[in-house]
Amino acid sequence: MVLGAGAAAVALLAPGGAEAGGGAATSPPATATVERGDLTDTLTVSGVLGHGAEQPVINSAGGTLTALPAEGAVIGRGDELYEVDRDPVVLMYGPKPMHRTLELGVTDGADVRHLEKNLKALGHDLTVDDHFGLATLTAVREWQADTGLPVTGSVSKSQVVFLPGKVRVQALRASVAAPVRKGQTLLTVTGVERMVTVQLDAGRQRLAKKGAPVGLQLPGELELTGKIAKVGTVAKPAGDDGTSTVEVRITLDDPGKAGTLDQAPVSVELQSEIRRGVLSVPVEALLALREGGYGVEVVEGSSVRVVPVKAGVFAGGRVEVSGGDLREGMRVGVPGT
């Protein structure tokens, strides 16, 4: 009788060596060595190679759209995101969107500090604090003159967009010469770092640990490696079947090897379990025992005996085994090639 065990076919034997149905144990056609080492079980999931999640850029100016960047363009601090009525809308770095006009007399706040940090980074002389004072007013006027904005000394949402850092233009949502309104999404952006994004089943979140290495297979059988950079903590519905997912972001060890691929499907190999310093045998060495469980045929010279074992992790064509008197270096029976 033959039973399935993982990827192997196993014969039904009794302990001691007699095969079910009678007859003495005979020497197997081939043998393999019992090895001690680490085994890593893996799980393969699907991901997408890109630059991370898209984020909309919300317009706060009214008028005619007179300029847009190209898709794929990288925009940094102080650079123009787009242009309305020929006035640039500029990117500055900050953790939260701008919510009010910043000018002399405005109450102190973190948004003032973020504006001042940007102005200082752009080369203007001022002290960074929460207060919009005369030095801030002077720096704003200098910046507006340098940028080509009306020199008013006040900064509004129609002039500046705060985003966490440098961005890459993912998609355009409007056309030059079109009228635009406040609240309209004109373009979407992502981060600039190449990464793989996985929507992982929330029930498997434990398999994704920040800093853990992963294997990646890209189109064209290109194989790369990476590390888990971020694991989401909020599960989001994935469909009508009640399943939910968490987002996992993976950085590439060598982004240059990915070429120019964007939004490409990727197979991601996660390490689901690592067993260190365990005994293992080839999967095909496993035998199904008549009374249940598994065993292996231990070959010692001309002697062959079946030793019951407990099977553990399956990985890389081998299986962890324990129990009996198995030792590293023993020979076990396997099917002939």
TrEMBL record:
Main location: other
Entry superkingdom: Bacteria
Residues spanning the signal sequence: 1-20
Swiss-Prot/TrEMBL keywords: Coiled coil, Signal
Domain (Peptidoglycan binding-like) ranges: 109-158
Keyword Signal: yes
Record has Amino-acid biosynthesis as a keyword: no
A cellular component annotation (GO) from this entry: cell envelope
A Pfam family annotated for this UniProt entry: PG_binding_1
UniProt subcellular location: Cell envelope
PANTHER family recorded: EFFLUX SYSTEM COMPONENT YKNX-RELATED (PTHR32347)
Protein name: HlyD family efflux transporter periplasmic adaptor subunit
Lineage start: Bacteria, Bacillati, Actinomycetota, Actinomycetes, Streptosporangiales
